[in-house]
């Protein structure tokens, strides 16, 4: 749940409000920068691990800035939302000036870390910030472009992970990333529409452009594309040659179950408003992701692969 301050509880301190406004629970989205480290077979390279860690921290800072900006822009609309009204800026726990000043400091820190990682990573970081600012100021009010912008943000982070350690990122990885991110973004749109009902368009005008049926159709297309894309990637001859194992296709049941479980939670449990919180709260889904990660790493870094 995103509620930050329930009525009758002590008012949070400024420091706590600033931290919560950065939405630390959402920083798990930045873990996508480690994909290049794993699939680029650099997980056992100490220097690459450190650089990937710095890349993760840089995007945590930059994404925090984006959340602050978004909450400043949307503060009036958020006050009318049953959940978002508890966010620090909408709730009045943070002033606009303080939020923007702190955001500027975080931006400088994130860009400084990005510059340390090299020009290629810095370009990715600047592109991410530009995309997110564009989203906050206008793209989120454009039908279809709103969810595509969210998905593109994940692609930039995945590609940036490769730039941080000097590893080219597979087009397959980028394709699977944008499809999965689209799936999550559309599921979130569906949750918002069903949660707010007839009031959806009043809380956010773009929601009036969608209907549950339309979103379900989009989700169906993206779901099939995501699973097929992942299946083709894992069983392709190029993948088998690159990783030295033909068995990566054995990981396919995990995304299959994970996506079906997510759809079940969205449709039968009316969840999906926050993919990150849903992942951390639902044990079967969390276990599925953990098993997928462990199996993938075991197959890629098995001694017969490392000996090649």
Structure notes:
This protein is 69% helix and 0% strand. It contains 15 helices and no strands. Helix 5 (96-116) packs antiparallel against helix 6. The protein folds into 2 domains: 12-168, Orthogonal Bundle (Tetracycline Repressor, domain 2); 170-308. The chain has 308 residues and is mainly alpha-helical. Mean pLDDT is 85; it is low at 1-6. The N and C termini lie far apart (47 Å). The longest helix is centred in the N-terminal third of the chain and has 28 residues, at 46-73.
Structural class: mainly alpha
Number of domains: 2
- Write down how many β-strands occur, each being a DSSP E stretch of 2 or more residues: 0
- Helix fraction? 55-70%
The radius of gyration is 20 Å
CATH superfamily of the largest domain: UbiA prenyltransferase
CATH topology label of the largest domain: Tetracycline Repressor, domain 2
Oligomer: single chain
- Overall CATH architecture of the largest domain: Orthogonal Bundle
Helix/strand order, N-terminal first? HHHHHHHHHHHHHHH
Q: Major sheet, described briefly?
A: none
Q: Give the overall average pLDDT.
A: 85
């Amino acid at each position: 749940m995103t509620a930050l301050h329930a009525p009758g509880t002590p008012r949070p301190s400024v420091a706590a409000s600033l931290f919560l406004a950065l939405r630390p629970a959402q920083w798990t989205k930045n873990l996508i920068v480690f994909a290049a480290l794993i699939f680029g077979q650099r997980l056992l390279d100490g220097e690459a691990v450190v650089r990937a860690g710095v890349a993760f921290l840089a995007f945590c800072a930059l994404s925090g800035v984006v959340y602050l900006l978004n909450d400043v822009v949307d503060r009036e609309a958020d006050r009318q939302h049953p959940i978002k009204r508890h966010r620090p800026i909408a709730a009045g726990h943070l002033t606009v000036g303080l939020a923007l000043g702190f955001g500027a400091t975080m931006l400088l820190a994130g860009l400084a870390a990005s510059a340390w990682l090299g020009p290629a990573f810095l370009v990715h970081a600047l592109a991410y910030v530009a995309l997110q600012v564009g989203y906050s100021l206008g793209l989120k009010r454009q039908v279809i472009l709103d969810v595509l912008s969210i998905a593109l943000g994940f692609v930039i982070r995945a590609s940036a992970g490769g730039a941080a350690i000097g590893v080219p990122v597979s087009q397959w990885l980028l394709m699977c990333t944008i499809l999965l991110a689209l799936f999550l973004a559309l599921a979130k749109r569906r949750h918002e529409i069903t949660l707010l009902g007839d009031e959806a368009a009043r809380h956010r005008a773009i929601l009036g452009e969608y209907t549950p049926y339309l979103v379900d159709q989009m989700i169906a297309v993206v779901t099939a594309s995501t699973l097929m894309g992942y299946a083709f990637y894992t069983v392709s001859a190029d993948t088998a040659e690159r990783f030295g194992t033909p068995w990566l296709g054995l990981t396919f049941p995990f995304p299959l179950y994970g996506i079906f479980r997510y759809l079940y939670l969205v449709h039968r449990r009316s969840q999906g408003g926050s993919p990150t919180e849903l992942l951390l709260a639902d044990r079967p889904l969390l276990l599925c992701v953990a098993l997928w990660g462990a199996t993938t790493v075991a197959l890629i870094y098995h001694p017969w692969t490392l000996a090649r």
